[in-house]
Amino acid sequence: MAEPLLHLSGVHTHIGPYHILHGVDFAAPAGQLTMLLGRNGAGKTTTLRTIMGLWQASSGTIRFDGNDITKNGTPDIACAGIGYVPESMGIFAGLTVRENIVLAARSGPVDSARLDWMLGLFPALRRFWNLPAGNLSGGQKQMLAIARAIAEPRRLLLIDEPTKGLAPVMVRSMIEAFKALKEAGETILLVEQNFHAASVLGDTVIVMDDGRVVHSGIMSELVADKNLQRRLLGLSLDTHQ
User: Fold this and answer.
1) pTM above 0.90?
2) Residue 186 CA to chain centroid, in angstroms?
3) Cα 210 off chain centre by
4) Domain ranges in the chain?
5) How far apart are CA 192 and CA 206, in angstroms?
6) Is 107 helix (H, G, I), strand (E, B) or coil?
7) Rounded-to-integer distance, Cα 199 and Cα 203, Å
8) With bands split at pLDDT 50, 70 and 90, how would you rate the model's confidence at 106?
9) Start and end of every ABC transporter domain (predicted)?
10) ∠ CA(184), CA(203), CA(159), 5° rounding?
11) Cα radius of gyration (the chain)
């Protein structure tokens, strides 16, 4: 297995009086897509937000590329090469698709080759390039949110439930886009509730419950073990094709 690019060790997170993460430990290998699974309320989104510095870990250590980023601010974490796509997507609805991409490329204009690659992943964005992002469908907005995250090269992408609420045809398009990102060597930590998508895309998997990691391993092994699926997630992946 590849060396971990991201490593969480004993991470606890409190939000006000609430203790959300209880000693989270896991590693995300470089060049792989790691699935972060679990029931609603398991702590998956809190984990992403803690990595990104949007919520500060109360204790424990977060290491990225060998460096301790536990207490770093969100701008510094972003500058270190971590891109974040929240569940809310965070696009600017009143700006055009092009303007959203321009704003995301803080270092200057997006390289033409990189722009062609991005628009190849998400062809709909080329069609709506000069239209307000608020006019896009839910799936197209999600595509724009991911395109914004990769407008500049990133070492790690944190993506929260990109297929949530999407029609099956859009889910298939999203799966193909993630396959292409994997082939390009991107390292991705992906929260997902669509278990078919998880089974197709995941290299490694972490399962959370009640703010703790209850399982980590190879995604294909979880796919092959129906009893383990039911024990960890309360269902079988076979029922979510």
Assistant:
1) yes
2) 11
3) 20
4) 4-81+155-239, 93-153
5) 11
6) coil
7) 9
8) confident
9) 6-235
10) 65
11) 17
